[in-house]
Amino acid sequence: MSARVALVPALLLALGAGPQVHGEGAVFRGPGVVVVWGVLRAPAEDDTAIVIRLALADARYAYMRVDAVDPFTGTRRPVEPGGPTRATVDVRSRRPTFADFPRREIRLYRTAEAWRADDPALTIYYLGVPDTTPEFTSAAGLLGYLADAVARARALSP
């Protein structure tokens, strides 16, 4: 991830705006959040799961939601309707859901009121599954990778 990508959300948050930031790669590190993608392959392609791990560093984002969006019509469907956040959240989608709703938006809110009003402090969006997303054939391999990738992203200096 480039320093430019990391600085944009920080600058916009300082101005009080609720920016939309393109997550781009399979690992994203922003202010107070790390997002890591992984794929859990299944014998049937329709059962293959895309997993997005959302790891929060502190309490700046108290609520979250994840939407799948059709970029042509703007129609959105909740993938994770959200609510109060935990330190780590894994959001699963079946791979075929990306065909009609390829855009994923991770919407982070500071308060319950902002969440109810759908007024996110930060939105991290992806235009499909990032090309750099690794694939695993075992849940243990995927979970180990997600934990390691979060730890490595957090270890990078801000």
Could you explain the architecture of this structure?
It contains four helices and ten strands. With 158 residues, the chain is of the alpha+beta class. The protein has one domain. A five-stranded mixed β-sheet has the order 1-9-8-5-6. Strands 2, 3, 4, 7 and 10 form a five-stranded mixed β-sheet that branches. The termini are close together.
How far apart are the first and last residues' alpha carbons, in Å? 12 Å
Number of strands: 10
Largest sheet: 5 strands, mixed
**Rg measurement, Å:** 15 Å
Percentage of residues in DSSP E strands: 35-45%
Going by helix content, strand content and strand pairing, the class is: alpha+beta
Taken in chain order, the helices and strands follow as HEEEEEEEHEHEEH
List the helices and strands and how they pair.
Layout: H1 3-14, E1 20-22, E2 27-30, E3 33-40, E4 49-56, E5 63-69, E6 76-84, E7 88-94, H2 97-100, E8 103-109, H3 112-116, E9 122-127, E10 135-136, H4 139-155
Parallel strand pairs: 1-9, 3-10
Antiparallel strand pairs: 2-3, 3-4, 4-7, 5-6, 5-8, 8-9
